[in-house]
Amino acid sequence: MPSVRMVLLKGYDASGFVFYTNYESRKGRQLLAHPKAALLFHWKSLRRQVRIEGPVLETTPAEADAYFATRARGSQIGAWASEQSRPLESRFALEKRVAEFTAKHVVGKVPRPPHWSGFRVQPLRIEFWQDGAFRLHDRLEYTRPNPSAPWSTRTLYP
């Protein structure tokens, strides 16, 4: 089944849109098995949205290390302690794991866990949508057959 979740966009450039996660989480496993994704940016107050679709690549270890190093220490410990998306028997069990990893990394830099990294969505389709009166919205679509090809543009019916 299709699956949707909110992620925190941490970067974008000509090669795509980047976010980070636990590769052993439900989303991580799904993206590794089926490396395609869709993104949605919605601005209700502006009555606009942007939709993006494309293949997914893993970020490089150097990119993931650099971003991980900028995270708060508590978030770094949390990346080690959380068995994201797996059943949790109790809140106490989570707090115990946090305490264990806090003790393990009490001094110095917290290294990035091997199961924690990033994904880059390479856009092949981008649609810009603007709300219009009486549902006569403006829709502009950019598509390309692969990430190195030029974009083609067309207007879509609302």
Outline the secondary-structure elements:
Blueprint: E1 11-13, E2 16-22, H1 26-33, E3 36-43, E4 48-58, H2 61-70, H3 73-81, H4 91-104, E5 116-121, E6 125-130, E7 138-143, E8 152-156
Antiparallel strand pairs: 1-2, 2-5, 3-4, 4-5, 4-6, 6-7, 7-8
List keywords for this structure.
8-stranded antiparallel beta sheet; alpha+beta; 158 residues; single chain; 4 helices; Pnp Oxidase, Chain A; 33% strand
Written account of the structure:
- The protein has 158 residues and is an alpha+beta fold.
- It has a single domain, classed as Roll (Pnp Oxidase, Chain A).
- Helices cover 26% and strands 33% of the residues.
- It is built from four helices and eight strands, in the order ββαββαααββββ.
- Strands 1, 2, 3, 4, 5, 6, 7 and 8 form an eight-stranded antiparallel beta sheet that branches.
- A hairpin with a 2-residue loop joins strand 1 (11-13) and strand 2 (16-22).
- Helix 3 (73-81) packs across helix 4 (91-104).
- The mean pLDDT is 96.
Q: What is the count of distinct domains? A: 1
Overall shape? elongated
Overall pLDDT score: 96
CATH level-3 fold name: Pnp Oxidase, Chain A
Helical fraction: 25-40%
- Give the beta-strand count: 8
What proportion of the residues form beta strands (DSSP E)?
25-35%
The end-to-end distance, rounded to whole angstroms, is: 27 Å
Give the C-level CATH assignment: Mainly Beta
Total helical elements: 4
CATH architecture: Roll
What are the low-pLDDT stretches, counting only 5+ consecutive residues below 50?
A: none
